[in-house]
Amino acid sequence: MLRLRFTKRGNMAGNNKKGFRTVEDADMEEYRQKLREHRRKVLRRTSIVVLVILLVVAGLGMYMAFRHYEDYDVLSSVERSDTEATHFAEFHGGILKYSNDGAFYTDTSNELIWNQTYEMPNPKIDTCGDYLAIYDKGGTRIYILTQSQLVGSIETTMEIQQVCVASQGTVAVLMKKDASAYLALYDREGNNLAEGAIHGEKGGYPVAIALSHDAVKLAVSMINIRSGSVKTTIAFYNYGSVGQNEIDNCVGINTYDDMVIPEMEFMSNDRMAAIGDSKVIIFEGAQKLQTIAEIPFEKEVKSIFYNENYIGAVTSNEDEAVTHHVSVYNTDGGLVMEKDFGLEYSQIEFLSNNEICIRNENICDIYTIRGIYKFHHEFDEQLYQVIPGEIGLNYTFVLKDATEKVRLK
Q1: CA angle 73, 404, 379 (to 5 degrees)
Q2: In angstroms, how far apart are the furthest CA atoms of the chain?
């Protein structure tokens, strides 16, 4: 029998705990080290893959953002038959068609939502929020509608010059009778809320009105021409609690010498732009409007267009190759974009996605709000309206005989 003899050398058990590592401990530490290295490698690889994906996505985004298109695929097409006097406008993503004898509201597939018959020699429209007003300029009839139906109608007692509709359907009506001007407010059912004559300072005659979205604030532009000089006065009215303490609800008057202001628009409930022949004046105020910015024009202005976010102006350009210059400003009056272009246009506007659409009867150019030349195309038939789709490359083209849903390519 084999016997082993051990020599006792102190506390062996204690030394094992404090000074020695077993084989199992060494293997476990090595395993943990390899596991940590593996995890670091996986993390590095994952980070690289994610970075590559982000770079590819960013590259594709930049490519799509800067890409120029000159053709498109037709996704669907619906034939139409309209009279030569038909006007077209976008209203909540649908197509509004209106003429002397009625209005039709359809979706982009030309499916009828509603139609309203009338007889108007000179139909005009105004929109705000969910409401649309169709009125006969020079006549006496107004219709108030939404996306789904007719809400109310108004028969005025005097000749209509301009109508502004608010976001809840209230309308302000500028009217004239002989040499006098009158202003009336109606609710969306057509009930008269207020009416009275407008007396301009020293014979000023009203030429434009603007109504805030909540129908509380109203601005009236009046022009006075005397001894060969021109002066414009803007009177501000408040029909809320603030204006009740003022004579005739008038809460302020601004006067501008040597300037004509034929157009005004509330871009939001508390911000208004006055479009003059030499500059645009921007006002702001929850109750009383005050000037916050001015956009002066050094050259002759050919067109001014706007939406709730931006104001655009086209001026002359001395370069014969690019005869027009467009500048776009935000509602604080800050310059956002400027671009030269040479297309002889009949219409320039902001689309509902804030892109700039410049077109004539057969040619359409589209620029992004950052000045990227996105689209150019020459159509075989007359183009009436361009409506952007929910996807960036999708549009609806309202042409002379058809409505086409397309995708740029």
Answers
A1: 75
A2: 140
CA 23-27-29 angle, 5° bins: 120
The helix or strand, by DSSP H or E, that contains position 215, with its residue range, turns out to be none
Q: Nearest 5°: phi and psi at 380?
A: -80, -20
Look up residue 44 and give its amino acid: R
Instruction: Pull the structure tokens for residue 344.
Output: 């002889």
Label residues 43-62 b or e (16+ Cβ within 10 Å = b): eeeeeeeeeeeeeeeeeeee
Domain ranges for the chain: 27-66, 299-378
Closest by CA to 375, choosing from 319, 109, 388, 384, is 388
H or E, element range at 148: none
Which residue's entry shows tokens 């001026």? 315
Cβ-defined contacts of 269-275 (< 8 Å, 24+): 269/167, 269/212, 269/213, 269/214, 270/212, 271/331, 272/210, 272/212, 272/217, 272/219, 273/306, 273/311, 273/331, 274/219, 274/221, 274/234, 275/304, 275/306
Residue with tokens 């009158």: 182
What would the two tokens of residue 347 be?
């219409």
CATH fold of 299-378? Thrombin, subunit H (2.40.10)
Would the CA dihedral through 160, 164, 168, 170 be positive or negative?
negative
Query: What confidence score (pLDDT) does residue 317 get?
Result: 87
C-beta separation of 122 from 159 below 8 A: no
User: What angle (nearest 5°) sits at the alpha carbon of residue 224, between those of residues 221 and 230?
Assistant: 105
- Per-residue pLDDT at 203: 61
Instruction: Say which amino acid occupies 146.
Output: T
**Cα–Cα distances in angstroms (integers) from residue 365 to residues 52, 260, 355, 396, 409, in the given order:** 35, 31, 10, 14, 15
Cα dihedral 324→330→332→336 (10° resolution): -70
pLDDT greater than 70 at residue 277: yes
d(CA 303, CA 323) in angstroms, rounded, equals: 13
Residue in the block written with tokens 């400003």: 329
Q: Please give the distance of CA 331 from its chain centroid, rounded to a whole number.
A: 11
pLDDT in tens, 308-319: 999 999 999 888
Nearest to 172 by CA among 180, 151, 182: 182
> How does residue 56 score in pLDDT terms, banded at 50, 70 and 90?
confident
How far does CA 282 lie from the centroid of its chain? 17
Answer whether 175's CB lies under 8 Å from 185's CB.
no
